[in-house]
Amino acid sequence: MSLNETPSGERPHIAFFGKTNVGKSSLINAVTNQDLAIVSSVRGTTTDPVQKAMEILPLGPVLLIDTAGIDDQSILGEARMAKTEAVLAKTDLAVLVREAGTDLSEEERSILSRITGNGIPFLTVFNKADVLSDERLSEEQRKADDKTLFVSARDKKNIDTLRLKMAALLQTEDACSPVLVRDLVPKGGVAVLVVPIDSAAPKGRLILPQQQAIRDLLEGHAMSLVTDVDELPGALDLLTPSLVICDSQVFDRVSAMTPASIPLTSFSILMARYKGYLSEATEGLSALERLTDGSRILMAEGCTHHRQCEDIGTVKIPRWLKAHTGKDLVFDASSGGSFPENLTDYDLVVLCGGCMLNARAMQARMRRAREAGVPVTNYGILIAAMRGILSRATSCLTQGIPCSK
Predict the structure, then answer these.
(1) Which pLDDT does position 405 carry in this prediction?
(2) I need a labelling partner for 209 at 20 to 30 A (CA). Which of 43, 64, 183, 358 fits?
(3) So where are the chain's domains?
(4) CATH fold match for the domains 8-173 and 182-271
C-alpha cells in the first residue's frame, strides 16, 4: 500500500444489494465511470462480493462492494448469500437496487429488514427507469421519498444525483471524525514511536497503525520521532516527549526504559479507542480469572498477512497467555474478513487492533461476541495486563472515541 493511499479500513463502505439482473453491476460501473464489475444478461453473473477502493467525487475515498443477487437459487446460492450477509456487517451505506416498475419482492423486503435492523443508512435506487413511460415515471417519482431515486445506468440518467445523495448520507453519519492520537500530543509537541525491527517486521515498510499515527500527528501539527527499542534511551536523552507509543509486544522493555512521568501506550490500544471498543475490551480482561485447562480462545485478526515463526497472534500471545494463567489453553485463529458465526464455544475472543477493518465491522464483531455472552479484549490491552502495566498504558486515554470536531 502506498503511503498516500487511504487504507480500506478508513474508507466508507458502500454496498449494492438487489436481485439478480436488476443492474447492480451496471450501476456501479456508471457511478464510477469505469468497467469495474462484469455486466451480463446471464443471471447470477456476480457470484462472490467484489470490492474496489477508489475515489469518487464528491464522496472522496470509498470502498464499493458489488454483491451477488439476493434471489440466487443456484447450487451455490446459499454460500453466496452467506457472503452477502457478511458484507452487511461492514456496510456504512447500503444501496438497494430495484427494477423500476416492479413491486417489492420478499427477497427485497428481507434484505431491507436486515439493513434497517443493523442501523445501516440506505438508499433505494430504481434502475432501468428508461423503460418506463414519462407518465409512469412521473407517477412513481411523486410517490417516492427523499431516500428513493430513479436512475438509468444505461443512459447515465440521475447518476450524478445518486453520487450527491450517497455523499450527503455519509456526511450525515460522519458527524464526528475520530482521531487516532493527535488529541494526546499538543501542537508543536513530540511523540516517540517505538517500532521494533525484528523477524516479524514487514520488510521495507511500516505497518499500517504506525503509518496512521505519523499521519495523524502531522494533522495535529505535532512531531514524531521513530526509533527502534535499543535506541529509545538515546531518544529520551535528547528530548522529553508528550507521549511514547510502542508495539505491544515490547511493552515490558519500553516501560522499563521510559520514566513514569512520560505517558505510554501502544498502537494496538490506540486502535481499540479509535475503533470505539476500548472500554469493552478492557472489561473483557475479567475472563482471565475464569480460564481453566481446555478453555478455548479465538485469536481474530483483521488482515491476512503471511504468518511467521514468531507471529504475534498465533505464537507469542498464546505462549504468554499460557505462562500467565498456568493453564493448558486451546487456541483457534481467524483472519481477514472471516469471523466465526458461532462463538458460544469460546471463553474469550482476542481481537487485533483492526486497522484493516472499518469501525462498523469491528463493532459487528463486538456485538456478535456480546450476543453470545463471550468476553472480548485486544492484543495490546491483553499484553499490557499480562505485563502489569495496563493502568499506565491506558491512563492517558479517554474511553470514548476522540473527535476532531
Answers:
(1) 58
(2) 64
(3) 8-173, 182-271, 279-386
(4) yes
Task: Give the per-residue pLDDT at 59.
Answer: 76
CA–CA gap between residue 385 and residue 381 (Å, rounded): 6
- Please tell me the distance from the alpha carbon of residue 146 to that of residue 130, in angstroms, as a whole number: 20
| CA atoms of 42 and 265, how far apart (whole Å) | 54
Q: Does CATH number 3.30.565.10 belong to domain 8-173?
A: no
For strand 60-66 and strand 50-56, is the pairing parallel, antiparallel, or unpaired? antiparallel
Q: Are strands 122-127 and 60-66 parallel, antiparallel or unpaired?
A: unpaired
Q: Does residue 129 register a pLDDT over 60?
A: yes
Q: What is the mean pLDDT of residues 24-43?
A: 71
Q: What is the separation of C-alpha 336 from the centre of its chain, rounded to a whole number of angstroms?
A: 10
Q: Among candidates 139, 124, 20, 142, which has minimal Cα distance to 81? A: 20
Alpha helices by DSSP H, listed for 121-158, are 134-143
What whole-number distance in Å separates Cα of residue 351 and Cα of residue 348? Answer: 10
pLDDT tens readout for residues 253-310: 999 999 999 999 999 999 999 998 999 999 999 999 999 999 999 999 987 655 565 7
- State the average pLDDT for the chain: 87
Class of domain 182-271: alpha beta
Give residue-wise pLDDT tens across range 88-97: 989 999 999 9
Q: Does domain 279-386 have CATH number 3.40.50.11410?
A: yes
The answer to whether residues 88 and 38 touch, using CB atoms and an 8 Å cutoff, is no
